[in-house]
Amino acid sequence: MMLVVHLSAEAVAGLDTHLNVSPVIDLNDHQVVDAYEVSDRLRARTGLLHTMCVFPWCTRPAAYCDRDHVIAHALGGATCDCNLAPLCRRHHRLKTHSGWSYTTIEAGVWLWSEPHGQQFVRDHQGTLDVTPPGRRVTQTWSGCRHGPASADPSP
């Protein structure tokens, strides 16, 4: 449903308000830019497609997340909505510097692998541990290199 409001210039001039007009973002479309940097429109679009950090168990809203290239831009990954995912700064750094990796299985579904071999599927419904039984670790790495492992499954 679309709401259309017609106001005359005189009516708007008399209002003590600020009007912000933004273009419509069609989520059924595909958007790509020819640069490493994510445009404001593409950032907004990925935030609408994926409403929170896509790291296993994280619930930080996408509005406060970086946009990460699932396939690195330096390796040929496109800057487009199907190759970008919101990662909060903590999990973006964890992925970049600590051996965590992920791949897109299908739109909105990612397979995460942690440094000790455990694997997790993350989608809009949450996180599922899909680690093969012989590779399960009794304690999950907390992400801190200076302390003991944590039993908390959300590094």
Written account of the structure:
By secondary structure, the chain is of the alpha+beta class. It has one domain. The chain is built from three helices and eight strands. A four-stranded antiparallel beta sheet has the order 5-6-7-8, with no helix packed on it. The chain is elongated and about 70 Å long. The N and C termini lie far apart (41 Å). Mean pLDDT is 80; it is low at 141-155.
Please give the structural blueprint.
Layout: H1 9-13, E1 32-33, H2 40-49, E2 66-69, E3 79-80, E4 84-87, H3 89-97, E5 101-106, E6 109-113, E7 119-123, E8 126-129
Antiparallel strand pairs: 1-3, 2-4, 5-6, 6-7, 7-8
Which features would summarize this protein structure in a list?
4-stranded antiparallel sheet; two-stranded antiparallel sheet; disordered C terminus
